[in-house]
Design brief:
about 160 residues, mainly alpha, globular
């Protein structure tokens, strides 16, 4: 899992052209929910030990590229102190205020977005490799009709196809 997510993270960083030096983010970038974070998340937690330099790059890049949006969200909260964007029935959550919050939040790239993208890339890479290697492996180990290999099980039929 570590290798898959790390590989996905390296690709995500490269595709975003974030593989460079970034200014150190403030301490707020390392704890709690980020401004503009969507409510909710994955139903289960996934813990993966990632290289510290990649984690730092993601947090620094997210903060640097989202700095303006984070500042605007801070000012939004100052103008709407009682509003809770994720609890729409609370006072201070007018339709206009929520629309502005949603617009501002869309300008913030949170580390969670990057972690989920890295996980998805890693899984996609693993599926692609598995399909390719499995198709090659099975064709290389094909047996003649009614001939059983040491690993075959009676009553089990497997059909593999290679996706384009």
């Amino acid at each position: 899992m570590i290798a898959l997510v790390t590989g996905g993270l390296v690709k995500e960083i490269a595709d975003r052209e974030w593989d460079r030096e970034w200014p150190d983010p403030p301490h707020q970038a390392y704890g709690g929910r980020w401004p503009g974070s969507p409510e909710g998340g994955w139903p289960e937690k996934l813990t993966v030990g990632l290289p510290g330099d990649l984690v730092h790059t993601v947090r620094a890049a997210c903060w640097s590229t989202s700095k303006e949006g984070i500042g605007q969200l801070d000012r939004w909260h100052e103008r709407h102190p009682g509003a809770r964007p994720h609890c729409r029935t609370r006072p201070g959550c007018t339709v206009q205020a929520l629309a502005e919050y949603t617009r501002l939040a869309s300008t913030v790239i949170t580390p969670g977005v990057i972690w989920r993208a890295a996980f998805a890339r890693g899984i996609h890479t693993a599926e692609t490799r598995h399909q390719t290697h499995a198709a090659i492996l099975i064709s290389a180990q094909a047996t003649a009709p009614r001939q059983r290999s040491a690993t075959s099980r009676p009553g089990l039929t497997t059909e593999m196809s290679r996706r384009a």
